UniProtKB/TrEMBL annotation:
It comes from Maritimibacter dapengensis. InterPro entries: HTH_AraC, HTH_AraC-typ_CS, Tscrpt_reg_HTH_AraC_N. Pfam families: AraC_N, HTH_18. This is AraC family transcriptional regulator. Keywords: DNA-binding, Transcription, Transcription regulation. It comes from the Bacteria. Residues 52-150 form the HTH araC/xylS-type domain. PANTHER family: ARAC-FAMILY TRANSCRIPTIONAL REGULATOR, ARAC_XYLS FAMILY TRANSCRIPTIONAL REGULATOR.
Amino acid sequence: MTRYMEMKDAPLDAQVLGPDTLRELHYRLLVSPLGGLLRGLLDADSHSSLIAAAIGRVRSDFRSPISVPDLARAVGMSASSFHEHFKAVTGTTPLQYQKALRLTEAKSMLLNEGHSVAQAAFAVGYESPTQFSRDYRRKFGVAPSRDGARQTAPAA
């Protein structure tokens, strides 16, 4: 991966060696311990591809409340099977996954867009700034108000 990334500064290397290096990366990923999961994503009827479709739905509308049974039904799985396979693919539950998306987006809003804590909380789908602040602190180790205060001050 390092060799491939270094090619961004060497256009000739990228043109000549890039396709083969990328092919090697694909090969190494497919034979790695995660290779089976990656290959499963290619099979439209595999559990992995069904979970990938559900992840797409969560990502596209992470601000809205999600219903795990509804997501499971949408991809043709029982709720218990969906939960089990979702956790196997992502390492987390669907609700925890959504929460991580929300918090990551809120952090960006605080750091880059000048939102207040309450604005960011409501914008990403939280109903309570207090609960948002608790979740934010758990995930990032600092209060959201502290990240909001890190915005760059205008140059004097």
